[in-house]
User: Fold this.
Amino acid sequence: MTITTLSSREFNQGASEAKRAANNGPEFITDRGRPAHVLMSFEDYQRLTKQRRNIADALAMPGIADIEFVPPRVTIKPRSVDFS
Assistant:
C-alpha cells in the first residue's frame, strides 16, 4: 500500500490522477501544509469501516427471493402502570 500526499491545489489540477493513485493506497490532501482530507478507494473505505449493508441494500440483492425467512410471531401485551 502506497500513501501519497498532495496539496489541495495539486488535487484540483489532477483529480483523475489522484483517483487512480487512490487505488494503490490512500491519498492525503493538505490545506496550507496540514492534512485535511483523505481520498481512498471505496473498497478500502468499506474494509476500514467494516461497513455492512443496510436492510434496503440486502433486500435488493439478486436472488433474495430464494432465501426463506419466517420471523417468529411476537405477542405484545400491555403492562400495568406503576405510579409509585
